C-alpha cells in the first residue's frame, strides 16, 4: 500500500498529549488543507472556532461529558456547520434568500465533516494525534453561547489536537464485506458478519484491558440506541434557524 493509504489505516483516537504546542503556522496549514476538501457547490458551509481561553476550554470539557483532554491538548477546535455566511452573501448579491431548508442543514453538516476529516489526515501526516469530540452535542445551546454562535450556525463536533503521549492500538473495523454491497442493498450476511466482528472486538477489548473489559461491538451499541439519543437536538437546530422545511 502507498503511504497515504497506510496513514489512513493507522488512525487512532489520542486522548493523552504531551505539553508541546503545535506551531501556529502549522495549525493554519492544517486548516488550509481542510479547506481543500470537497464542498457542495463551493458553498464552504463551515466555520472553525479555535478555543484558546483556558476557562472556556474547561467549561466545554465539562459540558461535553467531563472530557479533560479538551483542556489539556495543545489546541481545541470546534467545527461548526455555517449557513449564515453563504446565505448572507447570496442576499447581498440580490437573491431573495430562502433559509431553514433541510437540504441546507445536510449540506452544512456534510461540508463541515469533510473539511474536518481533511484537517485530521493532515494533522496525522505531521505526527500529531487527535480525538473527535461528539460530546459537544450534549449541551449544544450552552456551548453555542460560550462561542457566541449566531443564527444559522451550530456546533457539529470538536477536535482535540496535539502531540501524542500514548500509542494505542488501531481499533478494528467491520469487514469490508459487511459494508460494501454490489448493485443493490442486501443484509443477507449481516448476522454472520456481525457475529464474527463481535468476536474480534471482544478479543481486542480483553487484550487492551488485561481482561477487565469483556464485551462486544453489539453490546457497546446498546446505549447509543436507548439512552444516548440527544433528543434535544431537533429543537436546538430549529432554534438555530435550521427549521428543516
From TrEMBL:
The keyword Transit peptide belongs to this UniProt entry's keyword annotation: no
Nitroreductase domain sequence ranges: 9-163
An annotated Gene Ontology molecular function: FMN reductase (NADPH) activity
EC code(s) of this entry: 1.5.1.38
SUPFAM superfamilies in the record: FMN-dependent nitroreductase-like
Source taxon at top rank: Bacteria
Record-linked PANTHER family: NADPH-DEPENDENT OXIDOREDUCTASE, OXYGEN-INSENSITIVE NADPH NITROREDUCTASE
The protein's name in its UniProt record: Oxygen-insensitive NADPH nitroreductase
Taxon lineage: Bacteria, Pseudomonadati, Pseudomonadota, Gammaproteobacteria, Pseudomonadales
